Amino acid sequence: ESIREKLPRLKNVIVVGEERHSDTYLFKELIEKYPPNPPKVKINPKKDLAVLQYTAGTTGLPKGCMLTHYNIVSNMFQLALTHGLEGTREDIVLAHLPFYHIYGMTTLICASVCFGLSIVIQKRFDMEEFLELIQKFKVTIVTTVMPVLTLLTQFPDFLKQYDLSSLRYISSGATPMVPEIARKFEELTGVTVTQGYGLSETSPITHTNPLSQIKLESVGPPLPDTLQKIVDVETGTKELPPGEVGEIIIRGPQVMIGYWKRPKETAEVLRNGWFYTGDLGKIDEDGYLYIVDRKKETIKYMGFTIGPAELEAVLLEHPAVGDCAVVGKPDPVAGEIPKAYVSLRGGAEATEEELIKFVEEKVAGYKKIREVEFIDVIPRSLAGKVLRREFIEKERKLSRKTR
């Protein structure tokens, strides 16, 4: 309501729930008012958009990935030929990932409906409720992120209080796998752990481990109808042999048609029919992909992707901040947490708590900065870009020392 007057193009607001607000429509009443016979709409599957899936960028505002009906449906058929063939309509999936995120939307909602699976929905992740739901509904499949497995293995005695025998496997994605933790979870529970790989730009899944041949350190081979290459980072034109590290590029029916109203950025990542992921990896002799590092400087927090440039822009709005850099600090539970390095203006004063609260009030909850460190000067390149890599390497070294 506080920003309604600043949105002149906003015509209607539809509210889900029972509480009525001024100048809004209740979704429940709209559904009851109109008969259940929607109009027939003709679409061009390969050209018409199904979803504008926004993903955080490193150098500006989030970009909208233009995913067509063909992209999404193709990814469902690809999954049907991998995990789909290894499951049945008797499978029960536990869904705790947010449905507005590409991971939850596709792998949980779309896939479960497509394959005829049952879904148990957990509104927000809570470890005790998570385990209770698996036990109560005899859940067979869990799609999750690495921080959840990390948290569960930190409480082995608590974990053993629940009957998880119904689980066939747990699939992890969105954040890098920590093989040692995955193996520990398997030892504690007897449940198979596997992982896959994907991006918002690819609807999202491009790789997954077949349950019959899992390589825990790998995200698996590419899905059917998906091609992969490792190319040199400098030019992106030279294909590298197995074992060598380079940029991962993907080709397949699940790849987006471009970024919404971003022709320059689209041309940078879509070249000659290939999507340049910005991630670094290598392929073994069996075609299994291993993620080595992220070329992009995005922060992976609890499976969410956070663009540091967005948080830096907010920090710079504070009158005491002269310059800043935001990076991901390794965290055993979250994967990474947003940490800010701040250089204050001459004579200005600000506390860590003050800056954290300032940013928190302007961004989504999962994006808020968790730590602030004050320094004299923020290192920048000759072109004026923040040298985040220096801070990233510093945080990784400190993380290794404290293990």
The overall pLDDT, averaged over residues, is 90
Overall number of strands: 20
Q: Which regions are unreliable across 5 or more consecutive residues at pLDDT < 50?
A: none
Helical stretch count?
11
Helix content: 25-40%
Shape: globular
Strand content bin: 25-35%
Q: What Rg is obtained from the alpha carbons, in whole angstroms? A: 22 Å
Précis, in short:
This protein is of the alpha/beta class. The protein has 11 helices and 20 strands.
Protein model, in words:
The structure is a single chain. The chain is of the alpha/beta class. 26% of the residues lie in helices and 26% in strands. It is built from 11 helices and 20 strands. Strand 9 (192-198) and strand 10 (205-208) form a beta hairpin.
Features of the shown structure:
403 residues; alpha/beta; 6-stranded mixed sheet; 5-stranded antiparallel sheet; 11 helices; 20 strands; globular
Topology:
Elements: E1 14-15, E2 25-26, H1 27-33, E3 49-55, E4 63-68, H2 69-80, E5 92-95, H3 102-115, E6 118-121, H4 127-137, E7 141-144, H5 146-153, H6 156-159, E8 169-172, H7 179-189, E9 192-198, E10 205-208, E11 227-231, E12 246-251, H8 263-269, E13 270-271, E14 274-283, E15 289-294, E16 299-301, E17 304-306, H9 308-315, E18 321-331, E19 335-344, H10 352-360, E20 371-374, H11 388-402
Parallel strand pairs: 1-2, 5-6, 5-7, 7-8, 8-9, 19-20
Antiparallel strand pairs: 3-4, 9-10, 11-12, 12-14, 13-14, 14-15, 16-17, 18-19
